[in-house]
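Supplementary Note 3. Input sequence used for the single-chain structure prediction.
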Amino acid sequence: MATFDELTELALSLPRAHQEETWEQVTLRVGRKIFAMGHPESGEVTVKATPAEQAELIAAAPGVYSVAPYTGRFGWVRVRLAGIGPEELRELLTDAWRSVAPKRVVAELGEHGE
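The predicted structure, written as discrete structure tokens, is reproduced below.
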């Protein structure tokens, strides 16, 4: 089981990631690009994914993953934090971060031993 605090801690540990409040929710970003967002008290978060990744996640764990409102048509997934462990969350966030971060910033992840 993951918490919103763990989510933000993991996300902010990625190179150049930062947090902003937008649309009355927390958005996690690299530059101006969002890779995850949600409300701390909701128990859920929306994470960037491809449509293929979204389909795989939902098929594997429909009680944890669902199509995100508004952005789901682009592949974003809604994640129920109570249903995901820290390692799976780390992988999900890293993949989402990697999809929006510039290549030179992604290279920094390797330099930090990740």
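The two ends are 22 Å apart (CA to CA). Residues 99 and 105 are 11 Å apart (CA to CA).
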